[in-house]
């Protein structure tokens, strides 16, 4: 029984490369560039809570706003949620979503 618990714990908290960036690393990168997640959310029309949810859950608009602000491919930060940019996907690619995001800024 202990083995099963340890296995679940290890599986859940294993921060390997396929997991992407740790939430503290994302926050630190945003802060190093001179802003906060809350301010970035206001700038993109999202609530601060949405920005914090995006650190560990799939929230496409918030995830893409953070990645665009950091100048990093969303797949590098959240490989579970976004396919690599060179991989074909059935839905909207991160590059296409980034262009939609930047058009929102022009309208505002």
Question: Overview of this structure, please?
Answer:
With 108 residues, the chain is mostly helical. It contains seven helices and no strands. Helix 5 (60-70) packs across helix 7 (94-107). Helices cover 60% and strands 0% of the residues. It has one domain: 434 Repressor (Amino-terminal Domain) (Orthogonal Bundle), CATH 1.10.260. The termini are far apart.
CATH-defined topology: 434 Repressor (Amino-terminal Domain)
Largest β-sheet summary: none
Highest CATH level, the class: Mainly Alpha
Task: Report the strand count.
Answer: 0
Query: What share of the residues does DSSP label as strand, in percent?
Result: under 5%
Q: Treating each run of at least 4 consecutive H or I residues as one helix, how many helices? A: 7
In short:
The chain is built from 7 helices and no strands. The termini are far apart.
């Amino acid at each position: 029984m202990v083995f099963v618990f340890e296995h679940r714990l290890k599986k859940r908290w294993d921060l390997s490369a396929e997991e992407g960036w740790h939430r503290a690393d994302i926050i630190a990168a945003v802060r190093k560039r001179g802003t906060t997640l809350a301010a970035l959310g206001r700038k993109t029309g999202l609530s601060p809570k949405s920005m914090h949810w995006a650190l560990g859950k799939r929230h496409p608009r918030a995830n893409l706003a953070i990645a665009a602000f950091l100048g990093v491919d969303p797949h590098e930060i959240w490989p579970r949620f976004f396919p690599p940019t060179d991989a074909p996907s059935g839905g909207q690619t991160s590059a296409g979503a980034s262009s939609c995001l930047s058009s929102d800024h022009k309208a505002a």
